[in-house]
Design the sequence.
């Protein structure tokens, strides 16, 4: 069925009520949705809010136990290794942003429609720490979940203006936990849309 709607996996639970440090990265989902509304495009982005947050075991797909435990329990220095100020509320939002991406992927493939996950803060985290305002490797987690549940393999095009290292930095960890060569199935392209050539 052809439609000009883009099903958007968004909930206010994805965004902390206050700024959590220098970067506005955790605020970006809300800021983007507000901009879409301000431009009068909201009718093209119907929102699906009824998706469950990730559980702790979901984060263990791409991150070691020590880091996941430290992050969700506010144990420093790991809890703020992403460069952001940790709080229980902020930790809860991360469970929704990562889940948003996964559910958007599942819906797109299963239902054959275009979906959207207005998320941020995924492409610098490593298996053992956050980095560069990124707490977890959301795209690695979502991809592994989709592969393990359905056997799906896909690709990411990263339109951020610089290299996102989390897929490359996850190769060894994922290979050790899921089999050598598993990450060879991961295709990623990093594109800077502001530069020519």
Sequence:
């Amino acid at each position: 069925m052809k439609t000009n709607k883009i099903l958007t996996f968004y909930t206010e639970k994805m965004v902390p009520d206050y700024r959590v440090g220098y970067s506005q990265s955790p605020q970006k989902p809300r800021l983007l949705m507000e901009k879409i509304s301000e431009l009068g495009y909201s009718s093209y982005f119907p929102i699906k809010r009824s998706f469950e947050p990730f559980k702790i075991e979901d984060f263990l797909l791409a991150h070691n136990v020590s880091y996941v435990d430290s992050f969700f329990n506010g144990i420093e220095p790991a809890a703020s290794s992403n460069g952001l100020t940790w709080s229980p509320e902020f930790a809860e939002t991360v469970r929704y942003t990562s889940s948003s991406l996964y559910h958007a992927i599942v819906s797109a493939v299963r239902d054959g429609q275009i979906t959207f996950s207005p998320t941020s803060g995924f492409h610098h985290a490593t298996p053992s720490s956050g980095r560069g305002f990124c707490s977890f490797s959301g795209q690695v987690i979502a991809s592994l979940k989709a592969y393990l549940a359905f056997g799906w393999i896909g690709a990411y095009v990263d339109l951020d203006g610089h290299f996102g290292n989390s897929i490359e930095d996850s190769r060894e960890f994922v290979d050790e936990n899921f089999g050598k060569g598993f990450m060879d199935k991961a295709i990623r392209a990093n594109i800077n849309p502001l530069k020519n050539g």
Observations:
- Residues 69 and 75 are 8 Å apart (CA to CA).
- The beta strands are 7-9, 47-48, 115-116, 155-158, 187-190.
